[in-house]
Amino acid sequence: MDETTGLLVAIAVGVLLAATLFFLVIPEPGERAVIATERLDVAVLAFTNSSSWPGAEGTLESRIEARLVNAEGIDVFSRAQLDALLIEHALSETGFIDPTTAVEIGSLAGVSKLVTGSVYAVDTAAHPTQVCITWEDGACIETAPATEYVAQVRAQVEVVDTRTGRIERALDLRGADSTTLREGSLFGGFDSLLANASTSIASDVEDALAAAYTRELRYGIYRSAEPKRSGFVGDDATSRFARDDTVHLIVHFTHVERKDTFDVVWVGPGDAVVSEAFDVVSSGDWRLYRFDAGQTPGRYRVRGILNGIEAFDEPFTISP
Q1: What is the CATH architecture of 38-214?
Q2: Alpha-carbon distance 207 to 316, whole Å?
Q3: Contact yes or no for 299/314 (Cβ under 8 A)
Q4: How far apart are CA 77 and CA 285, in angstroms?
Q5: Cα separation of 304 and 91, whole Å?
Q6: Partners of 225 in beta bridges
Q7: Given this chain, do its domains 38-214 and 238-319 carry the same CATH topology?
Q8: Would you tell me the crossing angle of helices 79-88 and 99-109 to the nearest 10 degrees?
Q9: Based on the number of CB atoms within 10 Å of its own CB, is 185 exposed (0-12), middle (13-18) or buried (19 or more)?
Q10: What one-character DSSP code corresponds to residue 55?
């Protein structure tokens, strides 16, 4: 097989793979909703450090707080305000939160969950290795001595309910990062690798809280929709419909619990309920809800309600 033939075969395979993926993958609706199943006002307490790396607990604590601040469905109480309360009321920050202290902090700060824990191991290592310095036709033809620097952080993270003072989640987490530098290159130290490892742990904490205390769905309203494999694909996403249109609401339940309830309420001008649908759903389910736009022209809304909690309230108009 010559080079030209090989290139043509590669292009054909690529086109075939792209077409297969296009057929298999169902595009997600454009809007995303995250619903807290209970009040998620969180405070991140000081972490302890029993490792040999000074300051590892502060890095992990700040990474977790930053990650949760940017997470949907989670509100984080200011660390500065929390420190002031802890000092004012002389509450211990030993890392051990007894039930009475947890309830007291929750009452003072108005939070429902406390996140705390400890860094119990930090490992760093440098290993001799080789790095490729010359490539030809996708193959390495020349290497040079190098060093791989590896950092690992292990931590125990606990989630405490301030209503009961009990530990609801205990997570044993590991984060790691590495870099490889050619011999003679300057290595800036392990601090940046440890920070990245802590960021990885913070991501795991966010995922654990989201999985335990939130639900997620994707939705969109369209002028038309059609089935695709196990789901639906919408066409012409819009918020403006004519009287002879049908409004199509597509909902994909990306993270819910089995047998969660989902209600769809179509609201017309003057906040009058003009149509309703009641459903029971599970993770991975797709639903298509239709509304006949042959109604009185004006402003309408479609509300999605998951387990009695409003997930979205999407406005649209019907023109004469």
Answers
A1: 3-Layer(aba) Sandwich (3.40)
A2: 33
A3: no
A4: 35
A5: 43
A6: 234
A7: no
A8: 120
A9: exposed
A10: T
Calpha distance 60→47 (Å, rounded): 8
Q: The dihedral of CA 108, 113, 117, 123: what is its sign?
A: negative
CATH among 3.30.420.40, 2.60.40.2550, 2.40.30.20, 2.40.50.100 for 238-319: 2.60.40.2550
Question: Hey, how many other C-beta atoms are within 10 angstroms of the C-beta on 132?
Answer: 13
User: Helix (H, G, I), strand (E, B), or coil: what is residue 239?
Assistant: coil
Summarize the chain as % helix, strand, coil (round to 5).
25, 50, 25
- Neighbour count for residue 289 (Cβ, 10 Å): 20
List the one residue out of 285, 290, 300 whose CA is nearest residue 255: 285
- Which residue from 318, 287, 311, 313 is spatially nearest to 36, judged by alpha carbons? 311
Cα separation, 220 vs 314, in Å, equals: 9
DSSP 30: S
Cβ contact 221:239 at 8 Å: yes
Residue 256 backbone class (left: φ over 0; alpha: ψ -120 to 50; beta: rest): beta
- CA 207-57-118 angle, to 5 degrees, is 70
| In the chain, domain spans | 38-214, 238-319
Query: Could you read off the pLDDT tens digit of each residue along the chain, which spans 320 residues?
Result: 444 444 444 454 444 444 343 445 889 999 999 998 887 899 998 899 999 999 999 999 999 999 999 998 899 998 777 777 776 666 655 545 678 888 888 888 889 999 999 999 999 999 999 999 999 988 999 999 999 999 999 999 999 999 999 999 999 999 999 999 999 999 999 999 999 999 999 999 999 998 889 999 999 999 999 999 999 999 999 999 999 999 999 999 999 999 999 999 999 998 999 999 999 999 999 999 999 978 889 999 999 999 999 999 999 999 98
